[in-house]
Amino acid sequence: MRLRYSFRIDPTPGQRVALARAFGCARVVFNDALAIRTQAYEQGSPFVTDAELSVRVITAGKTRADRAWLGEVSVVVLQQALADCTTAFRNFFASISGKRKGPRVGAPRFRSRKDHRQAIRFTRNARFCVTEAGRLRLPKIGDVPVRWSRDLPAAPSSVTVIKDAAGRYHASFVVEVTAQPLPVVDAEVGIDLGLGHFAVLSDGRKISSPRFLRRAGKKLKKLQKALSRKEKGSSNRAKARSKVARAHAGVADARREFHHQLSTAIVRDNQAIYVEDLAVRGLARTRLAMSVHDAGWSAFVAMLEYKAKLYGRVFVRIDRWFPSSKLCSACGVIATSMPLGVREWSCACGAVHDRDVNAAVNILAAGRAERLNASHIRGRDGASRPGGGRVRPPFTVAPADEAGSHRGAA
């Protein structure tokens, strides 16, 4: 599987000028390609191929007086900008035709020099490398110092140099890694994600929600207010905007670090992880939007999924319509209603449940059932079996008149 390893880099003033030139050239090539394809579409002409674009935008562009500076950067950077334009169009066409799953993708848009995030990509054809001194050697830019926090597990296939809104530079390496199975353990866990507690585990543990954005709210409010007072286009406004961006970057970094530490601990200690598939997009349209975005459930679940695959663990998503909170984990009866304000409830069978712990236990049971059915359909070796079906019906609750023994039964 492919993973990204991102590190901070510290380019010199001269290298920052060279990177700014490369960012600008990549942006111009992308916009020129987009303009040509958009014009062809409006005129009813055939879709312009990548080879034709390369000749018209890059090769012929270098001979023009107003595009002569394209020769000052690596040609691989320009070719990757064309590849990004092609990918954007393919995603758009696949989305409107229904071939692409997920939310609808809009048509490609022109890039602006005022965008606060800029990026360029180097592939192996560019012959970038990491020197013996630990610096990143980029063509026509030089040897850039890197803040290495760990070693790369293999030779990278590409590197993306990114300048974020806070003015920081990063090098993101794409590395092909092999699975590294951890020793098998007996523990399995169901996870109920929430806002009161970030995560509640089926063994009763509750992980408090750090609420990074709300904790930084006072500082962000002060910085944003100072930004609003600065005159547009002034250097003071640019400085104030940079301060706001750095504050938001600190919040995002702290949240990402929390997600990494928690997901790594859960994957290390459990052989199977079961998580409910939450409708984050829908919840983000409610009055809880700020808290939902602050929690970052989607990023955390994505980390669990890829780390489980990397370390030989089992990861299962439970259907979002599964009534994990309303279902009694002791007798299997579903409560008629369960408002969000109810944090503890009693079932008719006499069991008293903590709402979140009960949900985590139910997610664990449903995940085990789903895993058993999936293993029967696929087989132990993972191959699909013709005619294979579910071992048992989906996880449901028996009606009250079916439970127990009936008089006269044999």
Question: How are the SSEs placed, and which strands pair?
Answer:
Layout: E1 2-9, H1 13-42, H2 50-62, H3 75-97, E2 118-123, E3 129-130, E4 135-138, E5 142-147, E6 158-163, E7 169-176, E8 188-193, E9 197-201, E10 206-208, H4 212-215, H5 217-228, H6 235-269, E11 272-276, H7 280-283, H8 289-295, H9 297-310, E12 314-318, E13 344-346, E14 352-354, H10 355-378
Parallel strand pairs: 8-11, 11-12
Antiparallel strand pairs: 1-5, 1-7, 2-6, 3-4, 4-5, 6-7, 8-9, 9-10, 13-14
Percent helix? 40-55%
Distance N terminus to C terminus? 56 Å
Poorly predicted spans: 386-410
Strand arrangement within the widest β-sheet reads 2-6-7-1-5-4-3
Overall morphology: elongated
Structure, explained:
Helices cover 40% and strands 17% of the residues. It has 410 residues and is an alpha+beta fold. The strands form 3 sheets. The protein has a 7-stranded antiparallel β-sheet. Strand 8 and strand 9 form a beta hairpin. Helix 2 packs antiparallel against helix 3 (75-97). The termini are far apart. The model is unreliable at 386-410 (pLDDT under 50).
Task: Describe the structure in brief.
With 410 residues, the protein is of the alpha+beta class. The chain contains ten helices and 14 strands.
